[in-house]
Design goal:
UbiA prenyltransferase, 14 helices, globular
Length: 300
């Protein structure tokens, strides 16, 4: 049982919440309406299966990248007070086991993604290639590291869109990119608040500059989302009523900037640890779908 727990910790199942971005094109599409109105129709079951394949395919591949990162840095992690407890660094999982698990996850992830379509599989493969580059080089380059992470979230949205064959609005992609930048710089802020900033190619992060990056990214995220609700695909569905949820969620993150170090600034950790934030996100999704359903189905 301890070994199983170590495997679960290694693949970071809790990080699969990030793959929730895959569902955004579904939430903002009329296919969500079809699923609600005819949940047992063949068409609806196909939609569910395709988005499920995309979600688990992306999640498995992301876990493979986490394993690769831990496998590569296992010697260095042993010198870190916190990271030394990771399964590979602590020796709970051997290097060979880690390598086999990583390969199995990558192959399984690509196979699952291929069930949602060739393009979806291609996006997952591109994500994997980008993150291999990130693991061995990109994470050591100032700014590039966070931008790569943000592109990863955009690829999640694209994967979700192609899986169910809907268009990913440029507004939605832009908003995803900026909110991901916000979350990425937010995490870096926490990291250097709890430990000295590591030298990187191009310099090193500083609290003052990161606060500015966080402010700019948050402002751009709110602006692009607001424009999306007013001028985007569902401009007639009064989605601008959901702007307060987005603003509230971002402001909640701001209030957590000075919380204890155990939250660590990781978006997944914060989401799971903060019930208020989880409620805001759930309410935002529910209201978005409710407005689209009301104006584009009931009053179509």
């Amino acid at each position: 049982m301890q070994k199983v727990k170590a495997y679960v910790r290694l693949i970071r199942v809790y990080q699969w919440t990030k793959s929730g971005f895959i569902f955004l094109p579904f939430v903002f599409s009329t296919k969500a309406i079809s699923l609600v109105t005819e949940p047992f129709a063949d068409y609806s079951l196909v939609i569910l299966s395709e988005i499920a394949f995309a979600f688990f395919g992306f999640s498995f591949m992301a876990s493979a990248i986490y394993v690769l990162n831990d496998w590569k840095d296992r010697e260095l992690d042993r010198l870190d007070p916190k990271k030394k407890k990771r399964p590979l660094a602590s020796g709970t999982v051997s290097a060979l086991e880690g390598a086999l698990i990583g390969v199995a996850l990558a192959v399984s992830g690509l196979f699952l993604a291929s069930q949602a379509g060739t393009i979806t599989a291609g996006i997952v493969l591109a994500y994997a290639a980008m993150n291999v580059f990130y693991t061995y080089y990109g994470k050591n380059v100032l700014l590039l590291d966070v931008f790569i992470i943000s592109v990863g979230f955009v690829l999640r949205v694209l994967a979700g869109a192609y899986a169910i064959e809907v268009e990913a609005s440029p507004w939605l992609l832009s908003c995803t990119f900026f909110i991901s930048l916000f979350l990425g710089f937010y995490k870096r802020y926490f990291e250097i608040s709890n430990a000295p900033a590591e030298p990187m190619l191009g310099g090193q992060y500083r609290r003052e500059s990161l606060k500015s990056f966080i402010d700019i990214s948050a402002g751009l995220a709110i602006m692009t989302y607001s424009l999306y609700t007013i001028q985007g695909t569902h401009a007639g569905s009064m989605l601008y009523l959901t702007i307060p949820f987005v603003v509230m969620g971002i402001f909640r993150y701001y209030t957590l900037l000075d919380t204890p170090a155990e939250i660590d600034g990781n978006p997944s950790d914060v989401l799971l640890a903060d019930l208020f934030l989880a409620f805001v996100i759930f309410a935002w999704v529910a209201v978005c779908f409710g407005l689209i359903f009301y104006f584009e189905y009931l009053h179509a």
